[in-house]
Amino acid sequence: MPRWAMVIDLWKCVGCKTCSYACQGINKVPLWPQWRQVDECEVEGFQGPDRIFLPRNCMHCSEAPCLSACPTGATYRRSGGIIDIDYDLCIGCGSCIVACPYHARAISYRDETPSAAFSPIAEGKKPADRVGICTKCNFCIQRVELGLEKGLRPGIDPEASPVCVNCCIAGALSFGDLEDPESNVSQLIKENNTLRLNEELGTEPSIYYILE
User: Fold this and answer.
1) Which of 92, 174, 181, 195 has its CA 20 to 30 A from that of 207?
2) pLDDT, tens digit, for every residue of 101-128?
3) CB 37: neighbour CB atoms within 10 A?
């Protein structure tokens, strides 16, 4: 069984937020809360502080605290390790939001989806049906699963990959199967110094950052 993960090269990311806008368009995500954010950060470099951009979304943790926090079972783990939400079961209580240490979940209390998000390629549930319930990134699972049915390779074939990966103009994002030692993400983790956010919490996030 695959274990889907993402590798983000922080030195390639230029902070353009194309990934956020692409996510917004394909998933019909409102202006807020966005499923994917890009923060501007400062790190210590050889010649003083360096500015980097930190793309963030759901970390799809192997030990996800949101799973046990959800009282209805709306938050669940798909095959491949992706954490998803059953909108029909979510009651909008916000327990999972409190439990998530990555601030990757939010509830939209009105439909503020921009008209640009209603495109012929938009996928997923209608925004009006998501008002008052929790939403977040799901690694474009609909694209991944449909691609697998067609014999495509997620992370290699664009049709089977998360739209943020496809649209990154700097090539900073990679997606693939951690269980495959020859996959693009496995090789990137092997060849680079990577870190995961808040590793000390034991959540085992599935997003790795290349920092050096």
Assistant:
1) 92
2) 999 999 988 766 655 444 444 455 555 5
3) 17
Higher-pLDDT residue of 125 and 166 is 166
Amino acid 200 reads E
**Would you say 140 and 26 are in contact if contact means Cβ atoms under 8 Å apart?**
yes
pLDDT of residue 113: 60
Q: What is the DSSP letter of 185?
A: H
Instruction: Tally helices (H) and strands (E) across the chain.
Output: 6, 10
Structure-token pair, residue 182: 């020859």
pLDDT attached to residue 33: 77
What distance in Å separates the CA atoms of residue 76 and residue 84, rounded to the nearest whole number? 6
Q: How many residues does the chain have?
A: 212
C-alpha–C-alpha distance, residues 109 and 134, integer Å = 10
Gap between the Cα atoms of 102 and 33, Å rounded: 14
Concatenate the DSSP letters of all residues of 71-130 into one string: SSS-EEEPTTS-EEE-TTT-----HHHHH-TT---EE-SS----GGG--TT--SS-GGGG
Q: Which CATH architecture has domain 4-210?
A: 2-Layer Sandwich (3.30)
Domain boundaries, given as residue ranges, for the chain: 4-210
* Residue-level pLDDT at 87: 92
